[in-house]
Amino acid sequence: MIDLHYWPTPNGHKILIFLEEAGLEHRIHPVNIGAGEQFRPDFLKIAPNNRMPAIVDHAPSDGGDPISVFESGAILLYLAHKTGKFGGGSPRGHVDVLQWLMWQMGGLGPMLGQNHHFTRFAPEKVPYAIDRYVKETTRLYGVLDRQLEGRTFVTGDDYTVADMACHPWILPEAQGQDMAQFPNLARWHAVVAARPAVARAYERGKAVAAPK
Q: Which CATH number fits domain 91-195: 1.20.1050.10, 2.60.120.620, 3.30.70.2190, 3.40.50.360?
């Protein structure tokens, strides 16, 4: 059993998508970041950076005590290693998955997160910041669009954690993007969204955030 400490954000979605795709038994523990629940002492014990998602695996591969993992990229790699799935089918394939996962963690997520902040949530509009991060979003969309030319998924024919990591961050309407400029990205985004496990993960996320 895996405990998933989660809220339906792009980083949270990544892990729920993996769990649904792999069919791993899990239970969701909502962490309402709008209410500041990520700062609770019990959560900080497993996620010292006070960010979700985080997991606790009660049945680790080594048979030892439960293990906690924070940071979404680390969680994806941990789960890929645990299950032997979605991590790249060969040593070279694994390297390709790693570099695109790191690209998402170091660029796509942080830059698009700044886009969200300055265009949607900042208490005052800062034109320079909005222009900067919308343009950087456009650049990153272009990088991914070029990578997807002639490929079904981010690293080739195999669906991997690189796809799971990138997909939830592609929110063109919220990020000031015209998907007509990125045909390979648009095609890939639709293919991944149509996967039953991905659709289930997003629907479960909506239920978690729905008013009780």
A: 1.20.1050.10
